[in-house]
Design brief:
The structure holds two protein chains of two kinds.
Chain A: E1 11-16, H1 28-38, E2 42-48, H2 54-67, E3 71-76, H3 79-92, E4 100-104, H4 106-110, H5 116-134, E5 143-146, E6 151-154, H6 158-169, E7 174-177, E8 192-193, E9 198-199, H7 200-213, E10 217-220, E11 223-231, E12 234-241, H8 256-260, E13 264-267, E14 275-278, E15 280-281, E16 293-294, H9 300-304, H10 309-313, E17 326-332, E18 334-337, E19 341-343, E20 360-362, H11 363-370, E21 391-398, H12 413-428, E22 431-436, H13 446-455, E23 459-462, E24 465-469, E25 481-487, E26 492-498, E27 500-505, E28 507-509, H14 513-520, E29 547-549, H15 559-579, E30 581-584, E31 589-591, E32 611-615, E33 623-627, H16 637-641, E34 647-649, H17 654-664, H18 669-681
Parallel strand pairs in A: 1-2, 1-3, 3-4, 6-7, 6-18, 7-10, 18-29, 20-27, 21-22, 21-27, 22-23
Antiparallel strand pairs in A: 5-30, 8-9, 11-12, 12-17, 13-14, 15-16, 19-28, 24-25, 25-26, 31-34, 32-33
Helix pairs in contact in A: 1-5, 2-3, 5-17, 6-7, 6-15, 11-12, 12-13
Chain B: H1 2-9, E1 16-21, H2 25-34, E2 43-48, H3 56-64, E3 69-74, H4 85-102, E4 110-114, H5 120-137
Parallel strand pairs in B: 1-2, 1-3, 3-4
Helix pairs in contact in B: 2-5
Classes of the chains: A alpha/beta, B alpha/beta.
Chain lengths: 682, 148
């Protein structure tokens, strides 16, 4: 290797204009000329309209070959966009790709400044930092890791089912983990799906069944992931399978236990609080798997020690009160998170009266009301269970597009509200109002659905509902719910007396999305949704290699979008599996055993357990610290912690960073040149 | 004499070195760029893999090389790409601040800022804020008391 200060270091500097993106603000030609004259070891400095074009890349390759460059700096966009591109160019010309550095003068200079002079000076400083740093760069070999072909999919809603089926059909094994006792997610609770109005269960159940019986899918329902270790290609995952308190090997799913169980419990989860289930239950009749679970918090036997009715009646003796949770450890190469959403809790908007006024319903409650398999058998009735509403108001954007709650649009509520309007009209013939802020129906066949609903005679009032109240002020309001809304198209306040109000609740990140994100090493946006790698070009990958996201855990979306993401994540994973191995950045910590004093300060620094201590009584410190490169993730925290400077962080060494600091602070290169000369003469 | 007056009137433009984490704050700078948010040009960012790689000696080096301030930025506590390394950054930062105080370096010259990849606007705002603060403090006069 050539020492950084040797005369043999020959750096090529390339300044990209990025069309006019950089060129209109930074004097690229001047910067290149300046770098060529003033920066140490620069053998050639050029500028180009588009460095990332094949012409730009060929220019670098040609210079490496013809001018004998052994370091390259490209000043262009962010390294997150084109670092790989230019590393490739270096590699093609026979230069180790890690002898390259990229300086961001677009995102950090031309796009955030307007003054040409100032921007040009900043670009010079950053390029100086890159040049100084690259002189210290070392050739590195990428780390190759094998990809375990097994895949973990977390979340058994439609997105997770789709992802699991795609991968399983391709011939790879999938562990599909679902927290609830059955697959299905929110989609299993719906009656009809927009805009086709086909029955949700009819299209979902076959998929659930296939996933539940697929030879390549290990279904782990009533289970949760507890711990994730490792990295892309090699994750070790600990999963807790909660005790169903029955033996699934002998249970036939006949349902007799459920029928005979004397304990009724309000079903807050599947029936949204509108119906009952037993203490031993399946969330719904088509549940996959077909086995029930005992809810021990409500089971009379578990609470009082007597009952055992289910055990008495079970024809196969499957009930096992003593069953314990099972903890399994599985190895997978890739993970897809499809953990879905929580519904906005409408109690948080007190002026809408949900929880206080009986006939204010949430959208999920209405889904269950209108569902033929729901608590009312699909009859749309008021909370008393018998009265059919004559007038219904659907309130859009409950909890969405509201700076008091969530600023974002929940994407599904407009279409859901239109669907509700249709169902109410169809089932009850009631007069239906939709109070909306804007109607958003951008997807295929959505606006046609909206037009169709208008033609059905649904009344649309453009305005955000201020209040839902039962306080009567005018004649005709007695016994009604009054919706107070400003009709912004007419410019008037309206009081609409209705029998039933449906709040079209928005979608929110899962209450534990943060913790789940932390468990898998990915982060959440300001709103709490999982962050994708790129909002447009990489929507299902995350910043953590090997972890993908699909469905509503990434942001509010409807069924078609969730299915598309499930399939997309599956395709990404299959691509990785078929490569068999991938290369990782060789950014790792290395211990110089000669320098290590055995102080063990670094030993507590690593959350990946890559650092261990090897006792060695012959050494003054009683031993030496070792780092396992397979476990090291390259954060460099131990490097900074080592008081002896015995740990090196490859590609981010002290020398490289110190040189970059010197470089970016080169405010007056002429002066610095003079100082250097003085030093030489002294 | 007049030259000296002119020099005093000329506004002081501080230079600040910023250390950013590859996963959050460097990407926040990217997103500030993508959103074309204009902010003070005085900060020069250096990319590290994690704010945990940030070593207090980088700050001393930057000051020795003529920086007037140093910004350290990483993922929000709890959001670290490497699980919990930014907590170590907090501890090192607090320790460094005490050391700098005993060296007579003003508090506002070193700042720890959390910015997620989505928070370009926040990073830009923090940079503007810090530049104004350091500008008010004036140039770092390290060792000036000793007539160096």
């Amino acid at each position: 290797m050539i020492p950084a200060n040797s005369d043999d270091v020959r750096i090529g500097v390339y300044v990209c204009q990025c069309g006019s993106n950089i060129g209109s603000v930074v004097d690229c030609e001047g910067v290149a000329a300046w770098a060529g004259e003033n920066l140490p070891h620069v053998a050639v400095a050029r500028e180009n309209k588009f460095m990332c074009s094949s012409l730009g890349q060929e220019m670098i390759e040609k210079d490496i070959r013809e001018l004998g460059l052994n370091r390259v700096v490209v000043a262009a966009c962010s390294p997150h966009l084109h670092e790989a591109t230019f590393r490739g160019a270096c590699q093609r010309a026979g230069l180790n790709p890690f002898l390259f550095d990229m300086v961001s003068i677009r995102e950090q200079v031309s796009w955030v400044n307007t003054d040409k002079g100032i921007a040009t000076e900043k670009a010079k400083a950053l390029i100086s930092g890159g040049v100084r740093r690259v002189a210290h760069n070392e050739p590195l070999d990428p780390i190759t890791v094998k990809i375990d072909p097994n895949v973990l999919v977390v979340g058994g809603g439609i997105a997770g089912i789709q992802a699991a089926l795609e991968i399983a059909d391709a011939g790879y094994h999938v562990y599909l983990v679902e927290r609830e006792p059955s697959l299905g997610g929110h989609m299993a609770q719906f009656d009809k799906t927009f805009p086709t109005l086909d029955c949700s269960a009819c299209i979902l159940t076959p998929k659930m069944f296939t996933a539940g019986n697929h030879k390549n899918i290990t279904l782990l329902t009533y289970s949760e992931v507890e711990k994730v270790d490792g990295y892309i290609g090699n994750f070790t995952v600990r999963i807790r399978q909660k005790a169903r308190k029955l033996n699934t090997a002998t249970c036939t799913g006949c349902g007799l236990c459920e029928e005979k169980c004397p304990k009724k419990v309000i079903d807050d989860v599947f029936e949204a609080g509108l119906g009952y289930r037993k203490a031993i239950y399946r969330p719904f009749p088509q549940a996959v798997p077909k086995y029930p679970v005992i809810d021990t918090e409500n089971c009379t036997y578990f609470q009082r020690g007597t009952c055992k009715v289910c055990q008495k009646f079970c024809p196969t003796g499957a009930i096992d009160f003593g069953q314990e949770d099972e903890v399994l450890t599985v190895n997978v190469g890739n993970i897809i998170l499809a953990t879905g959403f929580d519904l906005f809790d409408c109690r948080r908007i007190p002026q809408y009266g949900y929880g206080r006024l009986a006939n204010v319903f949430t959208s999920l409650e209405f889904e269950r009301l209108s569902n033929a398999a729901g608590p009312t058998g699909g009859k749309v009735v008021l909370r008393d269970g018998v009265s059919v509403p004559q007038t219904v108001c659907i309130v859009h954007c409950a909890g969405s597009r509201d700076r008091n709650y969530n600023k974002y649009c929940s994407a599904i509520c407009c279409m859901q509200s239109l669907k509700f309007a249709h169902l109410v009209k169809e089932r009850t013939g009631a007069r239906v109002y939709n109070c909306y802020i804007d109607i958003r129906t951008p997807a295929k066949a959505y606006d046609e659905f909206y037009q169709h609903i208008i033609e059905e005679g649904i009344i649309f009032v453009r305005g955000k509902v201020a209040e839902v109240t039962d306080a009567v002020r005018l004649a005709g309001e007695e016994g009604k719910l009054i919706v107070q809304v400003e009709d912004t198209l007419v410019g008037k306040q309206r009081r609409i007396p209705v029998d039933m109000v449906i709040l079209s609740a928005g979608l929110e990140p899962r209450y534990d999305a943060k913790e789940v994100g932390k468990l898998f090493g990915i982060s959440c946006s300001m709103d709490g949704w999982f962050i994708e790698r790129h909002p447009k070009l990489d929507p299902v990958a995350t910043m953590t290699d090997g972890i993908f996201i699909a469905g509503s855990c990434q942001g509010p979306k409807d069924i078609p979008a969730a299915v598309a993401q499930g399939a997309a994540a599956a395709a990404r994973v299959q691509g990785l599996i078929s490569r068999r191995e991938i290369t990782l950045e060789p950014v790792r910590a290395q211990v110089d055993e000669a320098k290590c004093s055995g102080c063990r300060i670094c030993n507590t620094m690593c959350p990946f357990n890559a650092i261990s201590f090897r006792a060695d009584p012959t050494r003054p410190g009683g031993g030496v610290t070792e780092i396992n490169p397979a476990l090291c993730q390259g954060c460099g925290t131990c490097v900074a912690a080592c008081p002896a400077g015995a740990i090196r962080g490859t590609h981010f060494t002290d020398e490289q960073i110190m040189a970059q600091i010197e470089g970016v602070l080169l405010r007056n290169p002429a002066r610095e040149h003079a100082v250097e000369k003085e030093a030489v003469y002294a | 004499m007049l030259d000296k007056v002119a020099e005093q009137v000329k506004p002081f433009d501080p230079v600040i070195v910023g250390f950013t984490c590859n996963w959050c704050s460097y990407r926040a700078a990217d997103s500030a760029g993508m959103a074309r948010i204009k902010y003070a040009p005085n900060v020069r960012l250096i990319r590290l893999m994690c704010s945990g790689r940030w070593d207090p000696q980088f700050v001393l080096k930057a000051f020795a090389e003529g920086a007037d301030g140093v910004l350290i930025s990483g993922c929000h506590p709890g959001d670290c790409h490497y699980l919990e390394q930014n907590y170590k950054t907090i501890r090192r930062y607090e320790l460094l601040k005490q050391t700098l105080a005993s060296l007579g370096i003003e508090d506002g010259r070193v700042k720890l800022v959390w910015a997620s990849a989505a928070e370009g606007a926040i990073l830009a705002e923090e940079i503007d804020h810090m530049v104004a603060e350091v500008r008010a403090l004036g140039p770092l006069n390290w060792g000036g008391n000793h007539g160096a």
